[in-house]
Amino acid sequence: MQIDVFSLLPSAFPPYLELSIIKRAMENGLLTVNVHDIRAYTTDKHHVTDDAPYGGGGGMVMKPEPVFRAVEMILGAPPVCPVILMTPQGRVLDQATVQDLAKHPHIAVLCGRYEGVDERIRQHLVTDEISIGDYVLTGGELPALVLIDAVARLLPGALGDPDGALDDSHATGLLEYPHYTRPVEFRGWQVPEVLVSGNHAQIARWRRQQSLARTLGKRPDMLENAHLTQAERDLIEEMKSTMNDEEREE
């Protein structure tokens, strides 16, 4: 997969891209990330990429000329791949979106800055707008890294365990089950006996039940769209009854 990133702060990317899973994916030829400095596509001697907004108001707005020039010189006109603007006005990034993006052989990511980008960039260059949450950051660089990381770990071969991403929180529509490792006992706290039993069927059943319980406790809204069997729905109703009984006892 190839990801082209367009940013006013290209130096923000190498420190993270050169670590861990993303680094391995790039070294193994699974992923290519090209970071382009938008300032390099200005034509004035001061490399101006922003200007005051028409109509007044605080802040500055990214100019259309260098952004269009950068994207079209690298990707063609029109661009040969989706161009994603990282913006708090975009649709919120979720696992389904990540899975969809990971299917593309090539995507581009545009990092906003200041008060945002000239609206003509949104209207005539960008093909999608994505946010990592309902809050505002100083620029799109951190959101772009979040998107790259989330997508990269879904690429076949990127993780040491080929099935490693299948049980992640949100991948199945539920939160992930609890994890334990050595030692079996720590400060008197024991690893659940089922996990050291060697019975894989019981372990799988325990993990599924724990995912249901954790999702019910932390993100009950996710259960509305989760693919559940009738037995699992009945179990959730039992869990709710237990929770209500405990609340009444308190």
Q: Mind explaining what this structure looks like?
A:
- The chain has eight helices and nine strands.
- The protein has helices at 14-17, 20-27, 64-75, 95-101, 119-124, 141-152, 200-218, 230-249; strands spanning 2-7, 32-37, 50-51, 61-62, 83-92, 106-111, 128-131, 185-186, 189-190.
- The protein has two domains: 2-152, Alpha/beta knot (3-Layer(aba) Sandwich), CATH 3.40.1280.10; 185-249, Orthogonal Bundle (Trp Operon Repressor, Chain A), CATH 1.10.1270.
- Helix 7 (200-218) crosses helix 8.
- Strand 5 (83-92), helix 4 (95-101) and strand 6 (106-111) form a beta-alpha-beta unit.
- It is of the alpha/beta class and 250 residues long.
- The model has no long low-confidence stretch (mean pLDDT 93).
- Strands 2-1-6-5-7 form a five-stranded parallel beta sheet.
What topology does this entry show?
Elements: E1 2-7, H1 14-17, H2 20-27, E2 32-37, E3 50-51, E4 61-62, H3 64-75, E5 83-92, H4 95-101, E6 106-111, H5 119-124, E7 128-131, H6 141-152, E8 185-186, E9 189-190, H7 200-218, H8 230-249
Parallel strand pairs: 1-2, 1-6, 5-6, 5-7
Antiparallel strand pairs: 3-4, 8-9
Helix pairs in contact: 7-8
